[in-house]
Specification:
single chain; eight-stranded parallel barrel
């Protein structure tokens, strides 16, 4: 993480597979950190060829038949992105004549409370020219991090000539190895829960351990939805001599992409836990961490490294950003979905951008389209879903499945296949046809089978379209996974406009019906609880009943927390807001009704 004293207090999280695949090239030279998804090595190859052509350097393809091709492709792409960003940043630091506009932009983007921005403003008010200011401050400029992301559950086993390959060649293992062998000095963001086998593999990668000077070339960031998860996963790493440098708290439901609801425990109370128990994490991990390093014969620090706490999910105004940073003492706040309105920063095709600009609140929905079987935030009318429906109408439901990153089902084959694939859906529908169900029951099951979408392809296609690369293998369908917060944005923005909005210099126009992000999270959790209740009515399962009661109790505690917060703390940041109290009272009433049902 860049030094916030000199740099920015926000980061751009991973978005889909292709939307932020080269965001670092566009923002890291200006000191802004972002995250690249490590899912699609074929997309990396296409983008690497694109940048090699842009930079007029030879492109040497890495064929699928090569040993460890996936890890090699990832290393090669990350090395190239590192070189491109470093070259841009060094030029900004050392070549005023060609970089004058970018130098001005670098300083303009900085938040007013950063030390570097204050130094800049002081020198400017003293009458120094931009070139003189640059001469004074250029050595203090910082480059944004080029972080990477792995969904830990996407650790598909791979086969060669019908034989299963060793775990070493699993998808997530290969991606981790690809990052570890790259030139990058940044963090790997691990999301989607704990994978013990993958976490154990970190022990074999030297860059995650401190050297004699206490420097780690690569760092670990854990994306978590609660404090307990942070404790369990952080301790697991510490006992292996591995330090978690950052816990990235993400709203379970008020976020983009896949969702991981935490049974009614909401973002505010979770962040309160981290605020009050932050030092406890450090103390809990350090003893085990140091002992593990000494046991391995590796350099062991006398003092613990810092642990950063960051958050993301549904943040949409400067006031919310400032509140999170100040009240909870965060090190950074993630702004994801709003940047989908900034084509200067992400790869987004014109059709999808227009879809987002014109979408209404009800067009954003929590879907079941992901082959992973996890709820997935989506938007009605995306072209991948239209393509999926067209295949259904033609009597050939399912995707051709050209990339096979989400294969996991072995109902009909020894080698796993994807439940969004034509191969799977054809067999599943054939099985369904033998069940002699009623028309209504049949249609319900049919829709459940065919609703799965080929998102591992669809989430990367926009990057090919925007950069005018061949997408004949992938097809023209585009998936997109914005969080519900994007419903309140309707205009295309520049990087400068978006950053000015984040820091409250000049806020962009947001639809007036946008609720506070804590209330929006409450809303989507209430909807999720209602859905669970409907499923329980069918199952009458004892475990489901226990889960429902736990969810209800947690929501009640969280409402009490927000009631106190809104009355005592919020006025300092958001002013007196009577509607907040009224909205909260409605949720109390609604929860009482739900309590009578369960």
């Amino acid at each position: 993480m860049a030094n916030q004293q000199f740099g920015h207090s926000f980061h751009i999280p991973v978005m889909g597979i292709g939307y932020s695949i080269d965001t670092a090239v566009k923002v890291a030279p200006f000191g802004i950190s972002s995250v690249i998804s490590l899912v699609d090595d074929l997309l990396f190859e296409k983008m690497r060829e694109f940048y090699c052509q842009q930079m007029n350097i030879p492109f040497n393809p890495i064929a699928k038949k090569e040993e460890d091709f996936r890890a090699k492709r990832i290393t090669a792409y990350l090395d190239l992105i590192n070189d491109v960003v470093t070259e841009k940043f060094e030029s900004l630091k050392h070549d005023f004549s060609t970089q004058k506009n970018n130098i001005k932009k670098y300083f303009d983007l900085l938040p007013e409370n950063s030390i570097l921005k204050q130094s800049y403003l002081k020198l400017e008010s003293a009458g120094l020219s931009l070139q003189e200011i640059w001469q004074n401050l250029k050595d203090k400029l910082v480059m944004g991090n080029i972080d990477v992301n792995i969904m830990t559950k996407l650790d598909k086993e791979n086969f060669k000539n019908g034989q299963k390959l060793p775990v070493y060649y699993n998808d997530a293992h290969s991606a981790l190895r690809g990052f570890a062998k790259s030139k990058l000095r940044s963090s790997i963001v691990l999301s989607a829960g704990m994978n013990r086998r993958l976490y154990t593999y970190f022990e074999e990668l030297d860059d995650f351990f401190p050297d004699e000077t206490g420097v780690m070339k690569k760092k670990i960031t854990l994306k978590v939805t609660d404090f307990r998860s942070a404790m369990i996963q952080g301790k697991f790493f510490a006992q292996k001599g591995l330090w978690v440098s950052e816990f990235r708290v993400e709203s379970g439901l008020n976020c983009g992409g896949h969702t991981f609801p935490s049974d009614g425990i909401l973002m505010g109370p979770i962040l309160q836990d981290f605020k009050e128990r932050r030092q406890e994490l450090v103390e809990m991990f350090f003893k085990a961490y140091r002992e593990a390093l000494l046991k391995k014969g590796k350099p062991a620090p006398e003092e613990p490294f810092p642990i950063h706490i960051t958050a993301q999910g549904g943040v949409g105004t400067h006031e919310e950003h400032a509140f999170l940073m100040d009240y909870y003492g965060l090190d950074s706040v993630g702004w994801g979905s709003p940047f989908l309105m900034v084509p200067e920063v992400v790869n987004i095709d014109r059709g999808t951008l227009d879809l987002l600009k014109n979408a209404k609140e009800e067009d954003y929905y929590l879907s079941d389209i992901s082959p992973l079987g996890v709820k997935f935030n989506s938007i009605k009318g995306n072209t991948k879903d239209l393509e999926r429906q067209e295949w259904i109408n033609k009597g050939t439901p399912g995707s051709p499945c050209p990339k096979q990153y989400l294969v996991s089902n072995t109902e009909f084959s020894e080698e796993p296949i994807c439940v969004a694939s034509r191969q799977y859906q054809k067999r599943k529908i054939k099985e369904l046809n033998t069940k002699n169900l009623s028309k209504e029951a049949y249609q319900k099951q049919f829709e459940k089978i065919t609703e799965k979408s080929c998102i591992c392809v669809g989430l990367g296609t926009a990057a090919l379209m925007v950069n005018k690369l061949d997408y004949s293998t992938e097809g023209p369908g585009v998936s997109i996974c914005p969080g519900p917060n994007l419903a309140y944005y309707s205009k295309e923005l520049s990087l400068q406009q978006m950053v000015d909005h984040i820091y409250g210099r000049k806020c962009v126009e947001i639809k007036p019906n946008r609720p506070n992000f804590f209330l929006k999270e409450l809303s989507v959790n209430f909807n999720h609880l209602k859905e669970k209740i409907e499923k329980f009515k069918e199952s009458k399962n004892a475990a489901d009943e226990k889960s429902l009661k736990n969810f209800y109790q947690n929501l009640h505690k969280n409402l009490d927390y927000y009631k106190t917060l809104f009355e005592t703390v919020f006025p300092s940041y958001f002013g007196e807001n009577i509607s907040l109290a009224k909205d909260l009272e409605k949720y109390y009433q609604e929860l009482n009704v739900i309590g009578e049902v369960i």
